Amino acid sequence: MTEPLRITSRQNERVKRAVRLRDRRGRKRQRRFLIDGRRELHRAVVAGIAIDEIFLCESLCQPAEMGPIGAMLDATAAEVMHVTEHVFARLAFGARAEGLVGVARTPPRSLADLRLPECPLVAVIEGAEKPGNVGAVLRSADGAGVDAVVLADGRTDLFHPAVVRASLGTLFHIPVCEATSQSTCAWLDRQGLAVLTASPEATRLYTDVDYRPGTAVVLGSEATGLSTAWKRVGPTAIRLPQQGMADSLNVSVAAAVIFYEAFRQRASPLQGEGGLQGIF
Amino acid sequence: MTEPLRITSRQNERVKRAVRLRDRRGRKRQRRFLIDGRRELHRAVVAGIAIDEIFLCESLCQPAEMGPIGAMLDATAAEVMHVTEHVFARLAFGARAEGLVGVARTPPRSLADLRLPECPLVAVIEGAEKPGNVGAVLRSADGAGVDAVVLADGRTDLFHPAVVRASLGTLFHIPVCEATSQSTCAWLDRQGLAVLTASPEATRLYTDVDYRPGTAVVLGSEATGLSTAWKRVGPTAIRLPQQGMADSLNVSVAAAVIFYEAFRQRASPLQGEGGLQGIF
After folding, report:
1. A170 contacts on B by Cβ (under 8 Å)
2. Which end of chain A is more exposed for a tag (fewer CB within 10 A), N or C?
3. Which of A151-155, A211-215, A251-255, A269-273 bottoms out in mean pLDDT, i.e. has the lowest?
4. Would you report the helix, strand and coil content of chain A in percent, each value rounded to 5?
5. Per-residue burial over A232-262, b = 16 or more CB atoms within 10 Å of its CB, e = otherwise
6. What is the ipTM of this complex?
7. Chains A and B: how many Cβ contacts under 8 Å?
8. Domains along chain B with CATH numbers
9. Residue B142: its chain A contacts at CB < 8 A?
10. Beta strands A79-83 and A5-7, pairing class
11. CA B251/CA B247 separation, integer angstroms
């Protein structure tokens, strides 16, 4: 076994190349992205994401953590490089990197790659600007058992480090892809999914629709709402009752409430309330 | 009308006093707290929070915003001080302060001050460490129409600037207070509320309880869960079904899903499913 490479300079080429992955352009050019943090990296490894390099700062890893980290590192073909705290501070993002930053190959993912079960529940996030919100919606979608998430016309990309981090690595667990709103519409149509658009202006409550057939829930950004692209698939607009101040719900919270209502309905198919009659 | 005071030095006593309010100890001593941001400040004014001082950095306020801000300032008895960008950078927290920081008097709020309607829905957050999470739960609670929120044995305080900010000012809209877990238990008991404790280890699903009587939902911190204090009130432990990776839901998301299930049940009293039989 050879000794791991030790890097002490911020001018090291490998370090500089990795730092460029903080920018969307760098991610696109290199077709690679960064994973900050132990848990996130572990989840990527488990999900079969190809990790090229891992930058490890031993003085920032708790000794007790080195055992599990070692086992995780053994499970990847990644080259492990030891870096000083000074170098690590350039590579890492925020406080949660825990002494580990991985460089992974961006998995090529398109609508055609999404394998759906029968009667799937799909989430579409349109025009997302804040990577933290995208990550939080992914986390909610994973918890609620959503079958796939599409980022449509995203103004951030799926593999932004802040998406990875806010998703706590659930990004690697749930089938996801990026697409234009237009191609997403065509795809939803081909899949025969009923399309629900979440909108504060809708008259119908989110509890008053039937989520048991194959369903796509389309969520817009908090600032601008949804584009008109969805009109061609004849969507049903739904809203959450907002009791407090206007705009008081975060998009990941609203998404989770809708996903869990879908889950509730799907778990208890014998009820027959509200708009749900007619199937049994 | 006199000209507003102009402050150009970070060593100004008023500025130094206000900066101390970033710390919990300073807030406790002065019985005052900071409000960053236009929307948050506006919501505080509307809610009748007493604002003592407002530090305004004109170069950071968009001209279009000065109209509404002026009207808002007129509605308070606050002393408005103009500060330079250099001074403002010391006072403000993060990017969302939008050229305005207010100093407000901490409203004295205890369990005895909470006025509840009949059959209230109350949320209790125990042992919260992250102010951002407390703010996010307040935002969810406000959206879902929760009647009051108690911060029990909090390791952060309600008027932490990050709570104010993450709550988007809903903190001022919803009845809130801080208390010990023990006194909260006694209070819940006196109010005759059914106590539901959210716990990943619970066997009962959150959809399988009746939220129509007066109910308190107790949420623990993501890290440590709930203390044993609640046992004396004979709580029912409930859980959300987690489909994805373990620990994938944020506490404010889990809270919102539970609050909205309560709202759904309360809005449609004629259904009779799952564990809800026997009332009608």
Report:
1. 244-245, 248
2. N
3. A269-273
4. 40, 20, 40
5. ebebebbbbebbbbeebbbbbbbbbbbbbbb
6. 0.87
7. 117
8. 5-105 (3.30.1330.30), 111-269 (3.40.1280.10)
9. 243-245, 248
10. parallel
11. 10
Report d(CA B155, CA A88) in Å as an integer. 31
Decide if B173 touches A, using CB distance below 8 A.
Answer: yes
One-letter amino acid of B242: Q
Q: Look up residue A4 and give its amino acid.
A: P
The pLDDT assigned to B141 comes to 95
Chain B contact for A243, CB < 8 A?
yes
Which residue shows structure tokens 């280890």? Answer: B201
Q: With bands split at pLDDT 50, 70 and 90, how would you rate the model's confidence at B97?
A: low
Whole-number Å distance between alpha carbons of B201 and B206: 12
pLDDT band at residue B278, thresholds of 50, 70 and 90? very low
Q: Residues of chain A with pLDDT > 70: what percent?
A: 89
Test A145 with B252 for CB contact under 8 angstroms.
Answer: no
Q: Is B247 on the interface with A (CB under 8 A)?
A: yes
| Residue of B142, B245, B271 with shortest CB distance to A244 | B142
For A271, residues 6+ apart whose C-beta sits below 8 A from its C-beta are A265, B271, B273
